[in-house]
Write a structure and sequence with these properties.
Oligomer: single chain
Structural class: alpha/beta
Order of helices and strands: HHEEEHEHEHEHEHEHEHHEHHHHHHHH
Strand content: 5-15%
Radius of gyration: 21 Å
CATH superfamily of the largest domain: NADP-dependent oxidoreductase domain
Shape: globular
Number of helices: 18
CATH architecture of the largest domain: Alpha-Beta Barrel
CATH class of the largest domain: Alpha Beta
Distance between the termini: 54 Å
């Protein structure tokens, strides 16, 4: 007979149905869920577990709310996230052209008592002290708060983008009590950036791409361990490991089928694979509707760990589908071509388009690439780049695809 835990998880999956598929509830539907269906457990019994964030001494929720959605129109979702213990909220100055930060500001204005419960993170696109100060002050004003818990330099590509000048700025911002902790986020060149950051003594936290694929990489394991030994708090993003195209392979179907039988969706299992590393303090997930929030929270509530056979299944799947996934090691491929084409960025935009079904963001980002570079995409030879790629990605095919569907 199935255990009570398994039944509970299966009942959840039946309720949440299309979790992760972008289902959005109406306000009426939301209230019905909030009042009746969302009793995963009594709110005073269950909260998302917390983990220590590096050397900071602060515990953060192991599930973080990614703020790249329409937060001003999602105030009830913020309230529900807090109720379930999702107290790590992540945003950035650029998200939604500032609407994300402003939406959080609306929430704190209406619920000032909740500010102290939230570990608030935002990011700066500026690198110079003057620009960072300007953006930090704007973020504080937008979000109706006097301080940011973790302030990150957004989307670092090279470690030399931060230096002693940055260190002095961070110390000053801390002294002024405008920020508590400092660090950076990164989508590419993660191994080198994490390894180099571990040598510094002033990085408190890093948000990095990390998932069931990357956790197999020995170099990534070593970089993560270096950060752990340095006391740097780590937040994982892009944890679903989506590739530049949706493969729909037999391996993918087998993976989903297996986890449904065990009481999880494959999306929930991918979160659990990352949580299996106890040194990953939190997973940042875009949860733009209550269904996805409910699915991820349920996975966090459930203490069942993935078995070795299930982790082996992920390893097998990662190997079978690696030619669809770009690991962001852009120096290897981009150094082989004459044109200044940002191959790894374009691969990420294809991932947004095909795996995340976030077509608007993918098209917007692709078309920010200068037109003279976009014009070179189909004229460039990628044979040498493909030979350098550790995942043997058909780079030429993907670059042509991007030009056709994103331009």
């Amino acid at each position: 007979m199935p255990s009570k835990n398994k039944l509970s998880r299966r009942n959840f999956i039946k309720t949440a149905g299309a979790a992760g598929a972008g289902v959005v509830l109406s306000t009426k539907g939301y209230q019905a869920f909030a009042n009746n269906e969302l009793k995963v457990k009594s709110s005073n019994e269950k909260k998302v577990p917390t983990r220590l964030f590096g050397k900071t001494g602060v515990n953060v929720s192991s599930l973080a709310l990614g703020g790249m959605f329409d937060i001003p129109s999602s105030q009830l979702l913020l309230k529900q996230a807090l109720k379930w213990g999702v107290t790590y909220w992540d945003t950035a100055a650029r998200y939604g052209g500032g609407r994300s930060e402003k939406g959080i500001g609306i929430y704190f204005k209406k619920n000032p008592q909740d500010r102290k419960k939230i570990f608030l993170v935002t990011k700066s696109d500026a690198r110079d002290p003057e620009g960072m100060t300007k953006l930090l002050n704007r973020s504080l004003k937008r979000m109706n708060t006097s301080y940011i818990d973790l302030y990150l330099v957004h989307s670092l590509k090279r470690i030399d983008e931060i230096n002693d000048q940055t260190k002095r700025w961070a110390h000053q911002a801390k002294a002024e009590k405008k920020i508590r902790f400092f660090g950076f986020s990164t989508h590419k060149n993660m191994v080198e950036l994490l390894s180099e950051a571990a040598k510094l003594d002033w990085i408190d936290g890093i948000m990095t791409t990390y998932n069931f694929r990357l956790m197999q990489n020995p170099k990534m394991k070593a970089a993560v361990n270096a950060c752990v030994n340095a006391g740097i708090g780590l937040t994982a993003m892009k944890t679903q490991g989506g590739g530049s195209i949706y493969s729909g392979s037999k391996a993918e179907l087998k993976l989903a089928e297996h986890f449904l039988k065990t009481g999880f969706t494959d999306k929930q299992a991918k979160l659990k694979a990352v949580w299996d590393n106890r040194y990953i303090s939190s997973i940042c997930s875009q949860m733009p509707n209550i269904t996805i929030l409910m699915s991820n929270v349920s996975a966090a509530f459930d203490k069942t760990k993935l078995a070795k056979t299930e982790l082996d299944l992920f390893r097998h799947y990662a190997e079978k589908t690696k030619s669809f996934y770009c690991e962001g090691c852009h120096k290897l491929c981009e150094s082989t071509i004459a044109a200044n084409i940002p191959i790894s960025d374009i691969m990420r935009y294809l991932m947004y388009y095909n795996s995340y079904n976030d077509k608007t963001r993918a098209i917007r980002k692709f078309n920010k690439i200068p037109s003279e570079i976009r014009d070179q995409i189909k004229k460039t030879e990628y044979e040498k780049a493909e030979k350098k790629c550790p995942n043997q990605i058909a780079i030429s095919k993907f670059m042509h695809m991007a030009k056709d569907i994103l331009a």
